[in-house]
Amino acid sequence: MTKRVLVTAAYLAPGGDVDRLLGDAGFEAVFATPAQRATSGQDLHDVVADVDGIVAGTDAFTAKVLDAAPRLKVIGRCGAGYDNIDIDAATRNGVAITFTPGANRRSVAEHVLALMLNCARHIPQNIASVHSGAWEQRSGRELEGATLGVIGLGTIGKSVARLGLALDMRVIAYDREPVTEEGVSVVGFDEVLRQSDFLTLHIFLSPATRHLIDAAALRAMKPGAYLINTARGEVVDEDALADALAEGELAGAALDVLREEPLPADSRLRELDNAIVTAHIAGATAEARSRSSLMAAQQVIDVLNGRAPKNLVNHKVF
Fold first, then answer.
1. For residues 152 and 202, what is the distance between their CA atoms, to the nearest angstrom?
2. What is the mean pLDDT of residues 46-57?
3. How many percent of the chain have pLDDT more than 90?
């Protein structure tokens, strides 16, 4: 019997590179993206019952979904994070979980740079002002000479640091692990908060990092500093951030990830002129999506063919 691989990543479609890669490997690709499921009225647990592998996007693979998939052997997550998957339930069910670190490294780093520039030069506010009929010329600031603080000096954090150095910024970083990067000064957590003009987050979400940037951390930052988050929404206490922005404790914030996505209509962040919010698009370039999805599909193929995959999360199952 031909093994079936479910594709749920929203940006993948029949006839594309992933479909061809799976087909060439002898598997049948079945597509059920969020938009397709919304049209058909199906939930995720309705489409996993007869599949052997999944190339996944940001769908929530809960214990309920995993328990509904008795044939499932592997989920290849397109992305650097996998907090949308219940790892304990997957391990209990013998499902290997893989992910694709580094595939969107450049895309995220460039988006961080774009957010920094938008903050520094008040670009969104100026565009809105011009569209409203005004001609406001607010003074911004240059990035050259400013201090860029990086929390999490992994693959993406290092890429952001290199972009900062190329702009003649002073770059400092904090990481829980011993790390080095040429031109970057590694400092303590309190120091990176205190010294940064622009603070950017590049860490996984875990019990230890949830609300790492809380009210106390925000108070420790410079009054004129900017916070940039392209990691995970729950790393930041959004209520505390909204308070800090409203009270002028920070100059501004730029967020690509939120506690709840899409951003609720009644979110306080929508009302704040000094908050820039993008719709989780940091890694959403054609190049990054191609690299990530092909990597995830190959990991699924490897597991289903009995080979150890790259970037395995739960090693117990293999």
1. 5
2. 97
3. 99
Q: Which pLDDT value is given to residue 1?
A: 83
Are 66 and 200 within one domain? Answer: no
| Mean pLDDT computed over 190-211 | 97
Query: Considering only CA atoms, which of 97, 103, 94 is closest in space to residue 83?
Result: 97
Residues paired with 173 in a beta bridge: 150, 186
pLDDT of residue 265: 96
Q: Do residues 115 and 227 both lie within one domain?
A: yes
The distance in angstroms from the start CA to the end CA of the chain is 23
Structural domain for 36, as ranges: 4-103+285-317
Count of the separate structural domains present in the chain: 2
Closest CA to 217 of 168, 267, 262, 253: 253
Residues 129 and 261 in one domain: yes
Mean pLDDT of 172-193: 97
Q: What tokens were used for 165?
A: 């150095």
Answer yes or no: do 99 and 110 share one domain.
Answer: no
Q: What is the pLDDT of residue 81?
A: 87
Which residues make Cβ contacts (< 8 Å) with residue 184, sequence separation at least 6?
A: 150, 153, 158, 161, 165, 171, 172, 173
Instruction: Please name the residue that has the structure tokens 């730029």.
Output: 254
Q: Residue 318: what pLDDT?
A: 79
Q: Which residue has the tokens 């205190």?
A: 194
Distances in Å between the Cα of 302 and the Cα atoms of 102, 233, 294 are 19, 32, 12
**Residues designated catalytic:** 232, 261, 280
* Same structural domain, 130 and 205: yes
Query: Is-contact 94 66, C-beta < 8 A?
Result: no
How far apart CA 74 and CA 303 sit, in angstroms, is 7
Confidence check: pLDDT of 131 > 90:
yes
Q: What's 52's domain CATH number?
A: 3.40.50.720
Beta-sheet pairing, 53-56 with 74-77: parallel
Query: Are residue 312 and residue 186 in the same domain, yes or no?
Result: no
Same domain, 91 and 115: no
Where are any strands of DSSP class E within 123-209? 147-151, 170-174, 185-186, 198-201
Mark whether 36 and 121 lie in a shared domain: no
